[in-house]
Amino acid sequence: MSLSGGLKLTDLNDFITPSQACIKPISVPKTDSMTEIKIDNSGEYYEVNAYGEETKLETASITLNDCLACSGCITSAESMLVSLQSHKELYNVIGDNRIAIETNQLQRLRTIVISISPQSRASLASKYNLTIQQVYDKLNWFFKEHLGVNYVVDTSFSRDFSIIESAKEFVNRYTEYYKNNNKQGVLPMISSSCPGWICYAEKTHDFILPYIDTTKSPQQIMGSIIKYYIGTKLGLLPNQIYHVSIMPCYDKKLEASRPCFSNEEYKARDVDCVITTGEIEKMLEEQSLDIRTIPELPSDGFLTKYGISNETGKSVLLGTLGSSSGGYLHFIMKYAAYHLFNIVVTDENIMNATGPIRFKQGRNVDYREVHLVNPQNEDEILLNFVYAYGFRNIQNLVRKVKTVNNPRINKPLPFHYVEVQACPSGCINGGGQLKPDNSSNYVSKEWIEQAENAYQSISLVNGFQDPTDNSAISELYNEWLESPDSQKARAMLHTEYKALKKEEVNALMVSW
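Below the sequence we write its predicted structure tokens.
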């Protein structure tokens, strides 16, 4: 058997961009004749035999199972878990509920909860020229009135929890690191909301795991809220609730399948099923519905980041400032500046590099440093935060972190906090987001920018709310978690990471 060293990816629905090189070995039929491969000016591949005859080669396609997260092929067990998460499974649960009602077996009913990510809303709004509010209200109608689910909630709500917990963890780590200069705290702290990054780190760079923020992602915190707070309120066990999360990313399916996010006693996951934005589009098509023309059903505000419009007096969705990948760096910089240095940093400072904030652009658009400088001495950088999106930048990040706290190298910290996303341009460009209707998987910069603008529009049009101003979060801290620093809060809002054994990984090396 001979092995090909150059497999071209052009039909991959994940964060790898089209036509990147993958050196996953593939079997090539052995022949007696001598052939060579020719590439024309358009990038097409041809096999040329000994007589000079050319045969155009078909582009190989790699499925999601081949290359999910691009951190080593997913295991067969992971592949099975992912296959159980699709919109077909949601249809099955809805069908089971109908049968239970028709046969009067009400004990078999499962309460269905749909949580919608802000990135998915933005992708739909961008493609179909709708407002974010319209998309949310239309999906609310689709799921509740058309399909018959029980609740539709907003992942921006649980994201407030995640951002606050991440900020608290950073301040604690920083304080421990610099207290008496003993470096007991683990810095730099690296964000944990991207499952593609977590999967990559666990499978290939276990040394970096202690640096990763232990806070659960918004998806998983919403799972905890629904299964263990709302479930208790409704008198339901975790396995009597079916929680579906709508996300911009296929890797969220793997995240939901992690053993630490399951309840062994009730054989239930915190998030039972993850559906991508693209699958929502497919569901609407299968139901012969056009999102532009279906009715709108205003939200009841349940677990939704809502406020009152100054213009209309009606309830409206609220945004969160910062990147379309969650706004972690934005909020943590403000929080840390005040709690560590008693410096007040405004939203305008961080967005426009004014006041004590400075920007330093990296070699590409997906890498940027955000500095907090001493107001009395602008040459002194107090905090160095970094946006690092895409695996080119992640690999550089890994190399820099490897030298941290190495006494033989004795280099200063290269940065204090990093907002990491596996996808170039971040979550708004997730592999599960909508693509242009041109039968191509290629996503242009203009397409991504259009979705980004839709995402940011909610803050510009309806207004935004700082996570610490969300009164419902304060209530949940006290009523559900007993206190912000309780053991229960730790269990419900945080997780841990474990290195995966080498033999569990099929070798897949990707050149970037």
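The chain is about 35% helix and 15% strand.
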